[in-house]
Amino acid sequence: MGKTLTIDSTLRCDVLVIGAGGAGLRAAVAICEQIPAKKIIALTKVTSPQKSHTTTAQGGMAAVDPKDPVDRPIFHIFDTWKGSDCSADQNVIKKVCDMGWEEVVWLEKHGMHFSRTEQGRIAKRPFGGHMLNFGEEKAFRACYEADRTGKGIMDTVWAESLRYGVNFIAQCVATELLLKDGTCIGAIIFRYPEGKFLAILAKATIMATGGNTRMYQVSSNCRGNTGDGLAVALHAGLPVMDLEAVQFHPTGMVGPGILASEALRGEGAILRNKDEEPFMERYAPTAKDLAPRDLISRAVVQEMREGRGLFHEGHNAPHVWLDLRHLPKEVHEKKIQEVCSFFKRFVGVDPEKDLCPVTPTAHYQMGGIPTNEFGEVQIDAQSVVPGLFACGEVAAASLHGLNRLGTNSLLELITMGRVTGGRVVEYLRDAKKPEGLPPDAGRIVFDQFSTYLDARGKEKYGQIRDTLRNLMMEKVGIFRTEEALLEAIESLRELKERAMHIPIGTTSLKTNQDLWQIWELNNLIAVSMVIAQGALIRKESRGGHFREDYPERSNEFNYHTLVSMPEFNKLTFGKRPIDMSMFEAKGERFELFDYIKREY
Amino acid sequence: MSKSYTITLEINRYDPDTTLSWIQTYHVKAGGILRFVDVLRKINDEQDPTLAWASSCEHAQCGSCGIMVNGKPLLACELLVKDAVELFHTHTFKLRPLTIAPVLRDLVVDLEEAYDRVHKAKPYLIKPAPPEPEGDEYRISPETLDIYSEATRCINCFCCAAACISTHRHFLGPNVTMANIVRLMDQRETAKEERMDMLYREDGVYRCHTSRACSFVCPKDIDISHFLALGKEGRF
User: Which chain A positions have a beta carbon within 8 Å of B221's beta carbon?
Assistant: First the structure.
C-alpha cells in the first residue's frame, strides 16, 4: 500500500531544541553563553522562531526586585503556592521567584523594550492573585512591555540566538523521540515544505514545544498548539503530569477566544453581567477582578448559568462584559494598545466607548512532561531520562500546580529555560556522541503517516475536529462531572476510530496541509484522552480542575497525577509527591506553606 | 446571526509536484464577521482539503498569514468578510501568495530568504552600553521610548515589503531597515557606526523611493515611512 516512507538524511548536533519559543531559545542562549562553540539545532513549527506562540503573550512577567521597598520574593512565592491551590512544587516556586528579577535585567540588557515609569525605571502593574504581605493587597509586580510583553521577550531571545548562530530549521515538527537503552539521542523530524523525514542525533535534546489547548472550541492558542510534544512523549512511553489542569482565561474575546489580557483588569477594567453589575465583588470580596483565573472563569460561567449573561448574535455565543470605558485615554493608547486594536478589528467595538463582550477561553496547560527542578525529564517520580530535558509550557516542574497565576508563565519560560540550559551544559561535559540510529528509528511515525496516507472512508477532518472541540468544551471544560467525563472518554474512543478513516486530499508529501493537520488532530485526541482520564480520577476540585460532584479540595489528592499512554487509551497511572520544602524548612511564616485554605 | 455574504474567491494554486499553477474559483457563503482565515478553513472543510494556506496566531500578532487580496498585501486573519466587501467594493476576491518569497504550494510561501534579510539587520544589541549602575536596569524615560516604541511593534509579516516599489534585490526592505533604525534610536546600543554603515550602504535606506506604500499597508498601523525618513535624515 502507498508510499514507502524513509529517513532522508541524518544530521548531528550537540543540542537539539524542539520548539524555538521563549523557553527553548532562552535555554539555547544559556548554553551559548557558557559554551559558544557547541552546535545547536532549534526546530520551529512556524516560519520563524519570531512567530512562536510566546509572541502573543500580553500582560507581563512577574518579578520582584530584591531592592523593592514594599514587595518581597517571599510574597511572590506564597502567592504562587496559594494560587496553585497548594499543588505546585515549593522548591521550583522558590527557585523561579528568586531568579525573576535577574532575568528581567538580563532581558533588558539584551534589548527588550520594557515600559517605563516617569523615573525611567521598569514599570510594573498588578495582576491576578499577586499580593503584598501574604495576601493583603494588590502588588505591582508584573514587568511589561505595553500589552505585548511576550513579543518583547520572543524578539529578544530570538535575536540573541541569531547572534550566537543557533541553527534554525523552520516549518518542521519532531515526530518521534529517539531513545536508545533509555537515553535520548535525538528525534525524527518532518519538514513540511519538502515533505522529508530527517533524523537528528544529539547529545542532549530539549523539549520546548509549548501549549496544546486547540482541542477546545474557544481557545486563545495559536493554530499549531496541538499537543504535538506531549503526544510524541506519550508515544515514546514517557509519562505526562497533571494534564487535567487546563487553564481557562476568563476574558477571551467572544467568538474565536482571542486573549484580552488580564492586564486590562490590572489597569482597572471591570467585569460586568447583563445588569452591568460588577459581579466579582460577590465572588472574591478582597481581590475582586484581580482574583486568580480559575476562580473568575467559574464566576463568569456561574453568571451565565444563572441567567445574568448575555448572548452575542453574530458569534452565536454567550458572554459577559468587560468594561474599559473609564480608563484614561493614555492607558488605552499606550498601555493596552494591542488589545484595544483587537477588539476594534475582530469584535467591532471601541473599548473607549463600548462594553466589550468576553467569555472564558482555553488558555494554558498547567501540566506537562514531568521534570525535576533542573528541567531533566522524569520517567517516574524518582528517575530521569538521560539526555532529555523539557522546559516551558510543555513541561511541568511544577511551578503552577493545578492553577497558574497570570505573568508567571513568561517568568517560567525565561527562568526555567535558563536553568535547563545550564543543566544541559553540565550534562554535555560527559555526554557521549550518539553512535547511530536505533534499528527501529521511524517505526512510530512511519506507521502513523502511512495510516493517514492510505486511509479510506467517508470521515471528514473538519467534522471530527469540530466535534472534538465542542466535546472538550462541554464535558471536559471549566465544570466537570463523572458522568460527563465518562461520556467524553467514550466519545474520544469513537473519534480516534473515525480519525483513521479520513481520506487524504492528496498523497503528495510536499506542503501537504491535510496530512499535517490529520497528524495534529490525532495528537489532540490523544492529549484530550489523558486530560479526560486525569480529570476522572481526580475526585476533588483544585485550581483549574473543578468537579461539580466533588466541589471541595481533598487532602487525599495532595499529589501530582502521572499518566503513561504508549498506545491510545491504554493508560497507567502514577503519583508524584508535592514538594513542601518551604513548609519543611520551618522558615518565615512557614505555616502558610501548608495545605492552606484558599480565599481571595 | 449577523449578515451573511456569498463571496467568490479566485485563488492562485500551485502544485509543487507537477509545478503546474492555475486559478481556482470557490463560491463560499460566509458570515460577515468571519475572518479570511475562517473562510479558507471553510473551503478546506466543505469543498477542497488540498488548498494550502498559512496562519498561526490568527489575531495579527505573528504575521504568518500575509497574502495578496485584490493586489493588496494584508493579513488573512484580520480581514473580516464584511470589511473586505466594504473595502474593495466587490464580492469577488483574488487571492495570491505574497510576492516577496518563493511559493511552496498555493498560498504558502517560503519565508526563509526573506527572514535572512531580517537577520542581516542584527535585531539584537550589537554592543550594549553598561547599565547604570552596573547590574541594575537602565534609566530610559518614557518620552525617549515613545519616539521609537511604535517601530518595535513590527511582526515581520512582509506586507510592507510586498507593497514597496523598491523591494527587489537592491533594497533590504522597509521592515528590515526599520529594525536597524530602532537600534540606532535605542540609547543602549553603542555600535552606532556599524549600524550607520548598514543603513547607508548600497542596499540601505536610500533605496527607498518614499512612496509610503509601507505605511499604507502595515497591518499594525506602524508609520514605517516616518522611521525611514528619520533614517534618511540621520535623526536618531
Answer: 341
Three state DSSP letters for A32-73: HHHCCCCCEEEECCCCCHHHCHHHHCCCCEECCCCCCCCCCH
**CATH code for the domain of B8:** 3.10.20.30
pLDDT at A226 over 70: yes
**A319 close to B (CB below 8 A):** no
Q: How many domains does chain A have?
A: 2
C-alpha cell at B224: 514605517
3-state secondary structure of A260: coil
Q: What is the CATH number of the domain that holds A327?
A: 3.90.700.10
B104 neighbourhood in chain A, CB within 8 Å: 193, 510-511
CATH no. for residue A452?
1.20.58.100
CB nearest A113 (choices: B33, B60, B152): B152
Residues 81-140 of A with CB under 8 A from B: 104-105, 108-111, 113-122
Indicate whether B190 and B79 sit together in one domain.
no
Cell numbers given for B2: 449577523
Answer yes or no: are the C-beta atoms of A590 and A426 closer than 8 Å: no
pLDDT band at A68 (very low <50, low <70, confident <90, very high): very high
pTM of the model: 0.97
% of residues, chain A, pLDDT over 70: 100
Q: Tell me, rounded to whole angstroms, the distance of Cα A15 from its chain centroid.
A: 23
Q: In the structure, what pLDDT confidence band is assigned to residue A2 with cuts at 50, 70 and 90? A: low
The string over A297-333, giving b where at least 16 C-beta atoms fall within 10 Å of a residue's C-beta and e elsewhere, is bbbbbbbbeeeebbebebbebbbbbbbbeebeeebbe
H/E stretch holding B233 = helix B224-233
Domain boundary among B62, B90, B109: B109
Domain boundary among B59, B89, B109: B109
Chains A & B: contacts with CB separation below 8 Å: 184
Whether residue B1 is predicted with pLDDT greater than 60 in this model: the reply is no
Nearest residue of chain B to residue A254 (CA atoms) = B33
CB A324 within 8 A of CB A332: yes
Question: Within an 8 Å CB–CB cutoff, is residue B48 touching chain A?
Answer: yes
Supply the mean pLDDT for chain A: 97
Residue A407 within any structural domain of the chain = no
**Catalytic residue flag (residue A325):** no
Share of chain B above pLDDT 70, in %: 98
Query: Which cell goes with A393?
Result: 509550557
Cell 515611512 belongs to: B225
**What does the pLDDT look like over A162-193, one tens digit per residue?**
999 999 999 999 999 999 999 999 999 999 99
Q: What is the ipTM of this complex?
A: 0.97
Q: Following DSSP, what letter does each residue of A181-242 receive, concatenated? A: TTEEEEEEEEETTTTEEEEEEEEEEEE-----GGGSSSB-S-TT-S-HHHHHHHHTT--EE-
From start to end of A293-375, where are the E strands? 310-312, 317-323, 356-365, 369-370
Domain that holds residue B150: 112-233
User: In this complex, which of B58, B110, B156 lies closest to A193 when CB atoms are compared?
Assistant: B110
d(CA A12, CA A587): 48
Q: For residue A381, what pLDDT band results from cuts at 50, 70 and 90?
A: confident
In b/e form, how buried is each residue of A215-254, taking b as 16+ CB within 10 angstroms?
Answer: bbbbbbbbbbbbbbbbbbbbbbebbbbbbbbbbbbbbbbb
Interface residue of A106, A223, A467 to substitute, partner B, most B CBs within 10 Å: A223
Q: How far apart are CA B59 and CA B50, in angstroms?
A: 24
